[in-house]
Structures are given as C-alpha cells and as structure tokens.
Design a protein that fits this description.
Mean pLDDT: 96
Strand order of the largest sheet: 1-2-3-4-5-6-9
Largest sheet: 7 strands, parallel
Shape: globular
CATH superfamily: Divalent-metal-dependent TIM barrel enzymes
Number of domains: 1
Length: about 325
C-alpha cells in the first residue's frame, strides 16, 4: 500500500518498492488514504494522463492490483458523506477504465438518528437504546446505500472489499457475513488481522469462517500490551502516539505476532482459496517508513507460500 510513500512521486515510489522486493501495489484514490499517487478526477477526463499513469507500472514491472478509497459514505454529516460517495464513484469508474478489479473501502458508520452530527459505533446490546440505533444504522442507512452503490460497482466490473475496522458497521467476521447475506458477493472482506487481533479474534479461525469472502489482504500486525490490557481492557481511546500507555499498538509484520503466527495465516489463506496479493500496510509508530517496509517485506516473502505442484509421497 503506497500511502506511506506519499511524499515521493509515484515513479520513484514504484522503483523503490521494486528494489526492496515488492511485486504489486495498492494505490490510494481518496478518503483517508488520500489521492497523492492517483487523482481519479484528473485521470477520468484525460486519456493521455491515464496512459502515462499505466506506463509507470509497465516500466517498473509492477502490478497495479487495487485502489483504496476508505471513506464514510453514510456519515451523518451530509457533506462528509457526499464527498466519500463521490470519491468512491470516481474510483470505481477509473478502475473500470484501467482494468483494476478491486476497490478497498470502509462500510461506513452512521449516526444514531437522522439528526446526528457524528457517527455512533455501537459495541454492546444494552441498554436497549443501542439495539434501536443498530436497527436504524443497518436498515435505514447502511443497506440502502450499498444496495444502490453496489449496482454501480457491478456496472464497473469491480469487487468491493470492506476493511473490517472497528468504528464502522462492518468490523468483524459476523458483521461481514451478515452484510454479504443481505447484499451478496459484490462485497467481500479486506482481511486486516491487525484490527481483529486486539478484538480477541483467532485469526486463522476467522479466515476459515470467511472462506470465499476474502477479496484482499492487508499485512499489518498488532501487539497487545499485557500489562495495560490487564489494567483497562482493549477498548482504548488514547492517541496512538502514547505507545507506553496504550493497550495495543499497530506494528510492522512480525513485531506483534511471531513468524509462526504469520506462517499459519498464510497457510490458512492458501487452504481457503485466497490467491491474490498480500498488501503490506505500514502504520508502526515505532519505526520509520523505510525500516518498517523493509522488515515487513522480508517477513512476508519468507513466510509466503508460492503455488507448487503437489508432491507425491512416493516421489
């Protein structure tokens, strides 16, 4: 995921990534990732710029695998929601023109009523007010929006991969499966273990539960601080910069969970039929971008399973 290299021109970023062993990239096109390396509005109205954009990947031998447009299109603030929607639509249309088959995003989080100013993420079923909020969010905001917008994605020939992220309606395996049951396989998961680790999920079990529903994978790690978690649990609102006091931290691959964990994760992905890229997302506040990316690339390349002909026991 090229967002950490947003200070570099795309051409330089692709060359650097190629040098450290990366084979494919996920490019931000709006929302929280920003559009530093790809502005859909500019490219949609200029075929020459599209050709120049694609030429950068051909020159470096890098695959353009996915677009990232993480926003909140059901935000109760209409301006915020409309901006997220417009960026998502532009991204899907550009993906159709460039042959990109996946758009990574958030499901979004609504407010608690039509007059809300801010999103409201519900984490418990009682008092019953929270169940009324969930009913409103899912049945009046989330499902109607994505039913309509999903039709656009299908027209553009793209799959939509929701990053299962706390703070949004789709944040774990159960909510992902519920959503797919309602609106079908246009939608799947961007499986990012880092968000599920601190929630207490068994990652291999979660991958198995989502067999066939994982459309994209983010390699990002989380370290749960046993001392801080013992004191206050995992629902931690301290800023990410207060590393010493937080219950958990996002870490470079291998610095939260060890190599055996990542071997099991890659094996589970292979066994459940996932055959796409492992997209490294760097958000480790204890490492520089360069150090974090290099260490993550080394770990992923070491544990990844390349498809090989099955070995026979008598061979």
């Amino acid at each position: 995921m090229t967002v950490p290299l947003q200070g570099m021109p795309l051409a330089d970023a692709l060359k650097y990534l190629k040098e450290i062993g990366v084979e494919a990239v996920e490019i931000g096109t709006g929302g929280f990732p920003g559009n530093h390396h790809c502005n859909p509005k500019e490219l949609l109205c200029d075929k020459q710029k599209q050709k120049e954009f694609l030429a950068l990947f051909q020159e470096t031998g890098m695959e353009l695998n996915a677009f990232s447009c993480h926003g909140n299109p059901i935000h109760p603030n209409r301006e915020v929601a409309e901006k997220a929607h417009e960026e998502f639509v532009d991204t899907c249309r550009l993906a159709a023109q460039l042959g990109v088959k996946k758009v990574i995003t958030f499901s979004g989080c609504a407010g608690d009523c039509p007059d809300s100013k801010y999103p409201n993420w519900v984490t418990c079923p009682w008092p019953e007010d929270f169940l009324h909020i969930l009913d409103y969010q899912w049945n009046e905001c989330l499902l109607p929006y994505w039913e309509k917008t999903g039709a656009l994605a299908r027209e553009c020939g793209v799959k939509v991969a929701f990053e299962m992220h706390p703070g949004f309606q789709v944040y774990n395996t159960a909510s992902m499966l519920r959503f797919r049951k309602e609106l079908g396989d246009t939608f799947g998961a961007n499986f990012d273990p880092s968000h599920l680790i601190w929630q207490g999920n068994d990652i291999v079990a979660s991958i198995r539960e989502l067999k066939g529903a994982i459309y994209h994978f983010h390699a990002k790690d989380t370290k749960v601080d046993a001392i801080n978690t013992a004191r206050k649990g995992v629902l931690d609102t301290l800023p990410y910069s207060e590393e010493l006091q937080r219950s958990w931290l996002f870490r470079t691959v291998g610095y939260g969970q060890g190599q055996e964990f990542w071997k099991d994760v890659i094996s589970a992905l292979r066994m459940t039929g996932y055959d796409d890229i492992i997209s490294i997302e760097h958000e480790d506040s204890l490492m520089s971008v360069e150090e974090g990316l290099k260490k993550a690339v080394a770990m992923v390349r070491d544990v990844i399973i390349k498809e090989q002909p099955a070995a026979m026991w008598w061979a």
